Every structure is written in C-alpha cells, then in structure tokens.
Amino acid sequence: MTILLNVLKWCALTVATVFILGWLFVWLVASDSDEATVYTENDFFHYHTLTDTDIKNAPKVTDDYYFEVHSGDGYEPSNSIVFKGAASAAPLRAYLETLGYVKEKRSLEVKEVWSKPDRLNADFFYLYFNTATGDIELTKVISNRHGIPCPN
After folding, report:
1. Quick one: DSSP state of residue 113?
2. Closest CA relative to residue 116, chosen from 86, 93, 149
3. Integer Cα distance of 107 and 25 in angstroms
4. C-alpha angle 135/146/126, rounded to 5°?
5. DSSP string across 17-82
6. Residue 137 and residue 130: Cα distance in Å, rounded?
C-alpha cells in the first residue's frame, strides 16, 4: 500500500512540475512579445526578475513611481524607473556619478545621456526630467556588447 502511495505522490509531483514549467515557458515567450512591461515594486515576480540592479538601487525621489522594461525588439533592451511629482533630479544625477557615469555634452532632445567615458558599446543611461509636471524617467539601455575598453 505504501509503495502505491509513493508512486501516486511522485506522479502527482511530476505532473505538477511539468505543468508549472510549461506555464512558465509559455508566459516567458508571451511576455517577450510585448513591446513594454509596466509594473510596480509590489509585483513581486516582475520586480525581482525584470528589474536591473542599477535601476532597483536608484534613489527613490518620490513615493509615486513604477518600472518599465522594453525587450528591445530591434533595439537594445532597456529598463526604466519613472517618478511622478518630483521636485529635482539631482539625487539621480549624483547616483549616476557614483556608478562611474558621466553626463555627455550631447543630449537627445530633452534627455540627458550618461555613459562611462572609458567604455565603448557599454550600458548607458538616459535621464529625462519634465520640470512642468515633475515626471522623471531614468532609463538604462543594456548593451549587447558589455564594456569593451577604449583603446588609449
């Protein structure tokens, strides 16, 4: 009798495991087809699996914020944190400096570009601050070629 119970228990566990892994595979494939995934820190799974460490550790300049992930369909993938009602982007600029990033002299429209001066094709950041609305977006663009040093 105990052998039959053990066999049934292992069969049930195997079926449950295959079902969970199958669902996870389908979910990951389906989530990759979306242009963007928007979530908050309360969305445990998305927050812990999709949020880049540098974005996760960014100073929270307001209590009203959310995250975005763009899979990079044709572009390099990116990860953002968007704040609402902020008074200043200074803490985020200081944070980027502590990570070794430098604000470039060029900008894209109203976005600041932050990069590491000694690295070609490395990750970089965009920082956008709308002073009229208080919206701030800090975006990390994740390069496919990680940090090739510049020749001297």
Report:
1. E
2. 149
3. 39
4. 15
5. HHHHHHHHHHHHHHHHHSSEEEE-TT-HHHHHHH--HHHHTS--SSS-EEEEEE--TTS--EEEEE
6. 9
Distance of CA 64 to the CA centre of its chain: 17
Q: What is the pLDDT along the chain (152 residues), one digit of tens a residue?
A: 788 888 888 888 898 888 888 777 666 655 555 578 899 999 998 999 999 999 999 999 999 999 999 886 667 889 999 999 999 999 999 999 999 999 988 766 789 999 988 777 789 999 999 999 999 999 999 886 544 444 43
Which tokens in the block code for residue 24? Answer: 């996870």
pTM value is 0.72
CA distance 135 to 138: 10
- What are phi and psi for residue 57, nearest 5 degrees? -90, 0
